[in-house]
Write a structure and sequence with these properties.
The chain is of the alpha/beta class. The protein contains six helices and four strands; from the N terminus they run βαβαβαβααα. Helix 1 packs across helix 4.
Length: 158
């Protein structure tokens, strides 16, 4: 199963989700990330946070959804902007779910306050990814409506 974490800029949240999912996922499950209007660079605070958490992020890059190496089975939007956009037609009939998370790239304040915003986003995404991976994934793969319901339920977790 291939999961696409989609965000507008593909510099923070979707990168955090991709790296975290791949760090925790069982064999046969893989995540990638992309943006509808990628910034072209991964936010340095995202990379620093992943490094502190011991999560590999080699090769992390902000990229367009037009340049995906494969067609995902599931698309998870992590920002409100991407949730309202129509995915490219070539993605076909993928399952879609929205796991909205505040954008830490827009955080203001002291360095500590901005770092805290990145950590909140990461922790929210990690909780949701862990909850998703705790599901009976083998059973869900064969039941699209149940898988959709579980994706949406997990996306509503705080």
């Amino acid at each position: 199963m291939n999961i696409l974490f989609l965000c507008t800029g593909n510099s923070c949240r979707s990168i955090l989700a991709e790296a975290t999912f791949n760090h925790l996922a069982p064999a046969g499950w893989w995540a990638l990330s992309a943006g509808s209007r990628p910034t072209g660079q991964v936010h340095p605070r995202s990379l620093a946070l992943l490094a502190r958490e011991g999560i590999a992020c080699d090769g992390a890059a902000s990229k367009s959804w037009d340049a995906l190496p494969l067609t995902p089975d599931i698309v998870i939007t992590v920002c409100a902007s991407a949730a309202g956009e129509t995915c490219p037609a070539y993605l076909g009939p993928v399952l879609r779910s929205h796991w909205g998370v505040d954008d830490p790239a827009h955080a203001t304040g002291s360095d500590a306050e901005i770092d805290a915003a990145f950590l909140r986003a990461y922790r929210t995404l990690r909780r949701r990814i862990e909850a998703f991976l705790a599901l009976p994934l083998t059973d869900l793969q064969g039941d699209r409506s149940r898988l959709q319901a579980e994706l949406d339920r997990v996306g509503a977790l705080p």
